[in-house]
Amino acid sequence: MRGSRAFALGLWMAAAAFVPLVPSSGQERVEQGLDIPVRPVQGPQAKRPYGPEQATGEPDTFEEGDLATAWASLRPDNGPEWLKVEFEKEVTVAEVRIRETFNPGAVTKVTAFDKDGNEQVLWEGREPQHQVPGDFVAAANKETASKSVKIYLDTRLVPGWNEIDAVQLVGKDATRQWAVRATASSTFANAGRGGDGEIVVLDPPDGRGGGKRPWGHEQATGAPDTMEAGDIPTAWASLRPDGGPEWLKLEYDNEANIAEVRIRETHNPGAVTKVTAFDKDGKEEVLWEGREPEHEFPGDFVVLVAKDRNIASKSVKIYLDTALVQGWNEIDAVRLVAKDGAGQWASRATASSTYAERVQGNVAPPPVDPRGRFNPPDPFADLADAPVKVKLQGNEVIEGVFVRSHGDFILIRQPAAKRLLIISKAQIILLEAPEPPARPGGGANGPDRLPGAVPHLRTR
User: Fold this and answer.
1) Residue 159, class by beta-carbon neighbours within 10 Å (0-12 exposed, 13-18 middle, 19+ buried)?
2) Domains of the chain by range and CATH?
3) pLDDT (tens digit, 9 = 90+) per residue, 32-61?
């Protein structure tokens, strides 16, 4: 491309997903003009390739190999990961049977949670060798009644992805049950590996209130729908990371005498500094203020209201200091729990800012944050709103307007088609974009580049 620069990207193992924001409907098809498979997501019960939900139910991976019917972490050989599985019935645990199907040997600890949420270690050590597919059997070393098990792995111990197909809980009464729900520290479902280069084509909201924008504050309404930790568009994110004070305000259908507020955080938790509620006259009452404690995520930061306080409200405001925890601090849902035990999810939300503004191309982030510190370097940082041509593995070519690069994926907007493409960097071979404008003057070698400009050829 004349007068352009090109980014050549190799096969980057730390890949990310074609993340579904608004699933398409209908059967798998080839998008006209792109010749790229488009696979719809068939609702929340569908099992994504390599997703943690693959570890629920009976085993369905019957041969050894890197197969999409088992759970895999986002990256191989990357260190600590975990898989947490839930079962229908509580039992006194006799053993946990972990069906491994690829590169076993990375499990380092197995724990169970009692009814009060206390974590008990059932087994810890170095996993012995066994056949694949096959079960690593962790015999419980203490008596624990549970229906929730967590498996810890050190993925550096065994090269390659360490994949788990199913987990069976065996009780001391000899009952056996397969997991019915699962979450994980990460998943290759967010990396596009299982899609063989497919792209999810998304129809962005039309602005008439019918859909949720990627990272919009409306993502915090309703029940949680972000099931893994990560920078995922189904949670709210502020416009800029590390920028200081932000807030998220939630409205509920019914007034409640508040017992607790449960904030479901899905990425970089720890930035919440205050939670308040508004009475019917609009007076703001502080429910909690301080430094948010550490907790696993996705998970809830629970704000408890003292029993002797009676605060009736249907509106809650969450204050954050995004400078406390690096990166975007994302919230998926907020549950209001009344003293009578009734709970409700937010029905409306507003916020101080939202990354949905950036996705829609309305705001360009500054090169430095308000405190003068440079944002983390990104080879795509100065491409915002530039026309680009992207060549993918398999020689498919996509043209559009560059929206955003974050983490392991990029967003490309095709205004004429009213589509938003979220593309895994792992699939990109070449990205061409216009050369950035030169600054007047410059040194002996000619005009300087604008701050943040990147060279003609960038490799990973």
Assistant:
1) exposed
2) 1-48+187-204+378-460 (no CATH), 52-186 (2.60.120.260), 218-357 (2.60.120.260)
3) 232 323 333 333 345 777 889 999 999 998
